[in-house]
Design the sequence.
């Protein structure tokens, strides 16, 4: 059976985890996979999540099935987190999904059921797993230009020009905040312009919001999604708790549908749940239950928000410190964009060969497209790191 199989190529981001772990150098630097780390390099369980887990353990007296949509309290809380307290719950439905990737796939499966040949437009560049997930569901892929590597800015005019060529009913995937891999984000006026365009052209927005709270704050990071929701007749959303609740391995996400009316929302939800049944049946409960406990309890929620804010502000400080070190070491403003980007990532604009040299010669790990995880920047060795980066430039 298996003799004709060729090995699948390793995932470029996840492969870095193994390479980094196997590197014996004590001063190695991990800027690879998108996992938040504190000053000591550790990824802790957040305080409120740990407390919620304790309560869960004490209160849970059964592990019987919950159903295809998972924890309904979690789903409602996640909708409010994304769409805001004023979310029109009559038109919105949500299903718990196994992580952000699971939510993306679930939405993609729903889209595949809406027409024979749906097309989804992805930003170029985008998170490397977007394309495989969309393809696995049978969607056609188109790309819109997004990032100008030279300036580190969004190519907004080019993006709009490309999307103007999209056909009625095409799907446009948008990073809700903290664009992965570039860190370059749309501002409010640009979100408004995108909203006008998708309404005018009859496109379906598909917002991937995997880093809410890591950019400008929990509410501010949902601004684009909410501008869209206020105007469009229909949209879909994939959200993730991996980063903002640090429940990476527990696989906690949500797939959401905003439909024209409650009736259509129910039908779309039934299709999404039937897709879930065929893929994995029901989502894992533990992480979502802990997140629900946090979001429904005022004190735990306040503590979660405070810790999340500490993480966000730390990443902002690291951005500034790193940009300053790069300025000192390169005697140029080439990397100044790092300070103005938001979220967990920035793309430095190095070649694959330069990234490889950094790994081999300096023990500095980043994704091959020179994406860095800002949370991994070593606070007390910024100039050393900047010097290593400058040394591979020529
Ligand atoms: C990342 O972009 O590094 C994270 O989302 C982890 C992943 O699954 O790729």
Sequence:
């Amino acid at each position: 059976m298996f003799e004709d199989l060729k090995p699948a190529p390793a995932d470029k981001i996840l492969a870095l985890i193994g390479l980094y772990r196997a590197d014996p150098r004590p001063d190695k630097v991990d800027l690879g996979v998108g996992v938040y780390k504190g000053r000591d390099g550790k990824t802790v369980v957040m305080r409120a999540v740990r407390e919620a887990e304790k309560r869960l353990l004490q209160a849970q007296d059964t592990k019987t099935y919950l159903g295809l949509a998972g924890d309904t309290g979690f789903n409602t809380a996640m909708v409010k987190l994304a769409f805001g307290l004023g979310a029109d719950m009559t038109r919105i439905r949500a299903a718990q999904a196994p992580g952000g990737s699971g939510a993306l796939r679930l939405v993609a499966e729903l889209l595949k059921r809406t027409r024979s040949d749906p097309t989804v437009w992805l930003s170029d560049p985008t998170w490397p797993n977007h394309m495989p997930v969309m393809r696995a569901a049978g969607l056609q892929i188109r790309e819109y230009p997004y990032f100008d590597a030279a300036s580190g800015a969004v190519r907004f005019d080019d993006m709009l020009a490309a999307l103007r060529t999209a056909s009625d009913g095409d799907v446009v995937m948008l990073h809700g905040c903290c664009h992965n891999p570039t860190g370059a984000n749309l501002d409010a006026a640009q979100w408004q312009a995108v909203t006008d365009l998708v309404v005018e052209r009859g496109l379906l927005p598909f917002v991937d919001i995997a880093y809410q709270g890591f950019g400008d704050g929990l509410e501010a990071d949902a601004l684009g999604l909410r501008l869209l929701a206020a105007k469009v007749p229909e949209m879909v959303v994939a959200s993730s708790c991996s980063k903002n609740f640090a429940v990476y391995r527990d696989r906690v996400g949500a797939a959401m549908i905003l439909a024209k009316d409650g009736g259509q929302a129910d039908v779309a939800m039934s299709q999404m749940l039937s897709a879930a049944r065929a893929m994995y049946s029901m989502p894992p409960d533990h992480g979502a239950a802990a997140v629900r406990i946090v979001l429904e309890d005022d004190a735990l929620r306040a503590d979660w928000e405070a810790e999340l804010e500490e993480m966000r502000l730390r990443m902002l400080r690291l951005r500034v410190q790193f940009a300053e070190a790069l300025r000192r070491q390169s005697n140029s403003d080439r990397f100044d964009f790092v300070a103005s980007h938001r979220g967990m990532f920035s793309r430095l604009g190095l070649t694959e060969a330069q990234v490889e040299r950094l790994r081999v010669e300096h023990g500095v790990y980043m994704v091959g497209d020179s994406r860095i995880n800002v949370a991994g920047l070593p606070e007390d060795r910024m100039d050393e790191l900047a010097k290593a980066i400058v040394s591979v430039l020529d």
